[in-house]
Amino acid sequence: MTTYPNSPNIAKAGIVMVDAKSGKTISMITLQYNSESLSRSYEPQNFGEGGQGNALRYKGPAVETLTIEADIDAADQLEFPDEFADVVEHGIQPQIAALEALINPTSEQLNNNNILASAGTLEIAPMEAPMALFVWSKNRIVAVSFSSFSITEEAFDTNLNPIRAKVNLTMKVLNVNDVGFKHKAGSLFMNYLQNKERLATKATGASLNDFGIDSLPF
Asked: Whose CA, among 50, 95, 145, 180, lies 20 to 30 Å from 163?
């Protein structure tokens, strides 16, 4: 935890939970330390086999998967026990619990469904979760669903509270094929895609001479 007055103001990455209908912010989780790497993989959605020319046709945006590894460490806070009493008492369990809440229905939702089932309700609608937005700079704000989530607790205090952990989080970017154009997640995806298109126009151009050829042999 630096106190140097001229330290740069570093933007934080994290997850914002919002109401899918109103867009109202419900909660926010910032990464304590920005991940040193952000892994992105794509699965193109082309038609493939089934007719001439289909390999060059896309039936929708590529499925994008994001993976980050984040560190959570209580060392800095434990240096100031009077200021961070909760950390002294619980270690980093509150931060871990906040992340775990991303992938679980609430106890209230589970109880309500149990009451409905006990009352003989024939069909119970799946529990709707808040919409999770992954924020990694102003150009990368996307709605995501969580594919996998793992926590490795690496150090503990004398009461076995975790004080250092690594979190691995894999997320699928929700696109218009998943939610439609009218959904807020769809609007975010279109904005995300348009940002990429604008950035692509700024890439340095090339010429055929760079490839050692004068023309293409069509």
From this structure: 145
Please report how many Cα atoms fall inside a 13 Å half-sphere around the Cα of residue 75, on the Cβ side: 10
Kindly list the domain boundaries of the chain, sorted by start residue: 14-201
Q: Provide long-range contacts, Cβ within 8 A and 24+ apart, for 5-12.
A: 10/34, 11/137
What stretches in the chain show pLDDT beneath 50? 1-2
The pLDDT, as a whole number, for residue 1 is 47
Q: Answer yes or no: are the C-beta atoms of 179 and 165 closer than 8 Å.
A: no
| Residues pairing with 64 in the sheet | 42
In this structure, the number of other CB atoms found within 10 A of the CB of residue 103 comes to 14
Query: Position of tokens 């980093």?
Result: 92
Q: Is the dihedral of CA 176, 180, 184, 190 positive or negative?
A: positive
Nearest of 134, 152, 150, 153 to residue 142 by alpha carbon: 134
Question: How is residue 140 written in tokens?
Answer: 């990368």
